[in-house]
Design brief:
It is found in: Cytoplasm. It catalyses: Thiol-dependent hydrolysis of ester, thioester, amide, peptide and isopeptide bonds formed by the C-terminal Gly of ubiquitin (a 76-residue protein attached to proteins as an intracellular targeting signal). The protein is α+β, with helices and mostly antiparallel strands and 312 residues long. It is elongated, with a radius of gyration of 23 Å. The protein starts with a strand and ends with a strand. α2 crosses α3, α3 runs antiparallel to α5 and α3 crosses α6. The strands form 3 sheets. Strands 6, 7, 8, 9, 10, 11 and 12 form a 7-stranded mixed beta sheet that branches.
Length: 312
Amino acid sequence: MKIQVRLRAPKGQARLEIDDESSLKDLIDLIKTETALSSFSLKYGYPLENLDISPASQSATVKELQLRGETIVVAPTETPISPPADAPKPKPFTPKGIEPDETSLEWPDRGGHIVLRVMPDDNSCMFTAFGGAIGLENPSQVLRNQVAEYILEHPEEYSKAILGEDPERYVGRMKQMDTWGGAIELSILSDIYSIEISSIDVKSLRVDRFGEGMDERIIILYSGIHYDRIAFCMDLSYPVEVDVTKWRTDDDEVLDKARELAQRLKNLHYYTDTTDFVIKCEICNWIGQGTRQAAQHERETGHSQFGEMTIK
């Protein structure tokens, strides 16, 4: 008799169909094929408990193990690959008043944690957040050039009226490493890479979706003047290189969990109110208020290095 087993793995959910007289080994092989994982542990039941998958137990049948209708959680056990000790590490952006244990939420149903990966505060945070999620190394310049080419190749869609300035000038600024990226760039990157980008605004908890209708999504977090990446990890001690950062767009649970993390960060005031914060140009010491004035100053002068000022 065929039975169904629900599977929850880091990259999403699936339903497996298997004969109830099949062995546990058969089920394990099916899970390996479905998840592309070679080494893992399995958990099931409520509360979750380990399923014994040692060689001595693999001859038991699915029927004997009473797995009909069960939800099985797959937890990878491959040894994480650490980067070389001498690899350069970017200076991270330090969230104001936020402790590391406040930037993650345990996710027992999937056997891991949803976590905020904080990007460097270098005016390229959006490009770094997106590029890292799709697996690019040192992505900022690559993505900037791709965005620039896309704009020039689509003059009717990205005209002066949309960009707020001549496309050639906009493209020239966007190629500079100190120019911020935003909604226009997210929309373009979604088209280039055929992936949905779900951007969660910390202050409003609104989810802006770029590229709806795609099969996969990544999730980033916007905190007013900064972008970070949302990821899933099995263990908080694992390096970011083994994070899961892409999910199927029909996996709404991960988006709900990311918003839950955003709610926690909102409660901790991990955002900048861009309507009235005071900003200073680090090139000419101009001082203005809010992102609208900053954008106008950038258009008029080409200066794009800003910092938030604290008024005492």
